[in-house]
Amino acid sequence: MHCRVLSGTLSKVSSNHASLPPRGWNSYDSFCWTISEEEFLQNAEQVSQRLRSYGYEYVVVDYLWYRRKVKGAYVDSLGFDVIDEWGRMIPDPERWPSSKGGRGFTEVAKKVHDMGLKFGIHVMRGISTQAVNANTPILDTTTGAAYVDSGRNWSAKDIGIKERACAWMQNGFMSVNTNLGAGKAFLRSLYTQYAEWGVDFVKHDCVFGDDFDVDEISFVSEVLKELNRPILYSLSPGTSATPALAKKVNGLVNMYRITGDDWDTWGDVTSHFNVARDFSTSNMIGAEGLLGKSWPDLDMLPLGWLTDPGSNNGPHRRCNLNLNEQRTQMTLWAMAKSPLMFGGDARKLDDTTYNLITNPTILEINSFSANNAEFPYVTSSKVQKSRSQIPTHQSEAFASTDETNTQFLGLTSCKDYKARGWSREIIDQDLQQICWKESGNQSTFCLYQRKPLFASDEEVSIKQKYGGKLHLLPNDEVEFCLDASPRRRLTSREVRRGSFSPCQLDANQMWELSLDGTLINSYSGLCATVSTDEANLVSLGVRSWIATGRTGEIYVAFFNMDSSSTVISAEIADLAKALPPIFLHGSTCKCREVWSGKDLGIIRGSFSMLVAGHGCALLVLNCY
To answer: What does the pLDDT look like over 375-425, one tens digit per residue?
Structure first.
């Protein structure tokens, strides 16, 4: 095992764009929007000195670097931003003094590059409301003058789409009309300027998830290909992001958020397990990307010294997660091969946090592991109250019990032949069921179908989006519909959903029966299956992931989602059910646990670990 993932090693491997999950530091978790040039460069210096050799190569200024830090300014305030004559955002000269004289981020980028790092910025969708209100002209980068088409000059009001304002920053930004040459010219002028400044990384916000704008993403991707310097392209945020949605853009970008903002609460950590599983099952980890690969992003790591969401203050408190919870987060991020963007104040990087984010095994897994997936074949010592509380390996499961067996609903790839067992059964002219049949036998599991009930004033776009889709109910007398997976990431302030919840126009409750007998969920793009195999069950409150290393080792992570300690176990023979045969040569393995540093010696048959509440165990197995 390598002691550290050296930046030189990463550079050699990363001849293609984002060949490995990107790694770096971002200012948001510790400064929100208020960071200054001095504070940013101080953090960059610490990243260069302490983290660069571990592959942390990007330092990113998060949002509102153009907003004046004065009385009345906050996240969604209007009229406090600094824009140039072409309506483009430029750094606030009071916070970023080297930007004066039209230099933008040129001097900051140069200093970052001199530290051996790469420089990144956060940008918003489209054009600012402030520019539209000022009706600024649009720069034509091919002529260096105002954009002219059809015999007239074009300006900001011609391209801004006010009805498509950013949902979470209504006063801030709106989409531009990319069907117009003027709209394209404006976007090109933005990203050309970023390249001139020396930007290496762009975090593009309010264009994905709930604010999906495939036209802007597509055009920006085209512009980035044309530039004379490589710029890594990241999308944010990921509220309501699904594998099906991601497949529309993964080839255009290098990383994309698949959750809302992650903060330092246990509820936020646990909310990432389902979505990480869904994207792994959909083969999105390391899929094709812009000039290289793309990576589902679980968000920044809110560890160390932090601020608060939406705050006008800088770092002033410690992370609220305990050490076990921090290890759980770090382990899941590594096993899911998420980009690792440290969010704490690097100037106050304590030894505990430093050892956590530079753990050599964690970084090895994050960069170089393969076959990463949730591992279903684990048990715990805790006794369940009822079998209906035990989830399957692919869902927050529910069970349907009769006198002879119990069926468990899960999700799998729609390419899996095991998913082809669904058909429609007509009960009467007004009532139909969607039923699962085992190998042509009688129906073993049925749900009642119903078309979504649209209100008369529902938007046409919603009716078009969900037209032809179905709600599925446990019987014809209740108003609870089948959920496939959370519609968006949940926080500790929200009630965790079960498998049935009040019927809504949510993608996770929308299903479509295909001609090949698959039942497709609109949220994940995955298909439903029914199983009676108890071997496919894991205990409530226990999760597990598996991956393989580049020298033949097997990584198994046990996660205890409950607050009390529990023993988690797995059989060596079950590893073969989740991995290619080449990785398991027998039922004997050498084993060590990463976080405790314990050498567990030779294990045969099965292996177990006592895992603390909210904690995890990360096992490295060499089997023969």
So the answer is: 989 998 853 433 333 333 333 333 333 334 456 677 777 877 778 889 998
Q: Which helix (H) or strand (E) holds 464?
A: helix 460-466
Which residues are CB-contacts of 9 (< 8 A; sequence separation ≥ 6)? none
Q: How many CB atoms lie within 10 A of CB 95?
A: 22
Three-class SS string for 107-156?
HHHHHHHHCCCEEEEEECCCEEHHHHHHCCECEECCCCEECEECCEECEH
Closest CA to 328 of 620, 21, 558, 29: 558
Which two tokens mark 282? 């959909």
Q: Does the pLDDT at position 369 exceed 60?
A: yes
Phi, psi dihedrals of residue 341, rounded to the nearest 5°: -120, 100
Report the Cα 177 to chain-centroid distance in Å. Answer: 27
Q: Kindly state the tokens that stand for 361.
A: 């095994």
Identify whether the C-beta of residue 280 lies closer than 8 Å to the C-beta of residue 546.
Answer: no
Using CA atoms, how far residue 242 sits from 256, 278, 568, 597, in Å, is 11, 8, 30, 37
Question: CA neighbours within 13 Å on the CB side: how many for 340?
Answer: 28
Q: How many CB atoms lie within 10 A of CB 49?
A: 12
User: Left if phi > 0, otherwise alpha if psi is -120 to 50, otherwise beta: which for 32?
Assistant: left
Cα gap 405→403, rounded to integer Å: 6
CA angle 609–614–618, rounded 5-degree value: 40
Is the pTM above the cut of 0.85? no
Half-sphere exposure of 63 (CA within 13 A, CB side): 20
Cα pseudo-dihedral 146, 150, 151, 154, rounded to 10: -30
Do 257 and 299 form a contact (C-beta atoms < 8 A)? yes
CA distance 203 to 189: 17
Output b/e per residue, 177-196; b: 16+ Cβ within 10 A. bbebbbbbbbbbbbbbbbbb
Instruction: Report residue 604 as tokens.
Output: 């045969």
| Beta strands per DSSP E along 276-381 | 287-289, 292-297, 305-306, 317-318, 340-342, 370-374, 378-380
| Rounded Cα distance, 438 and 444, in Å | 7
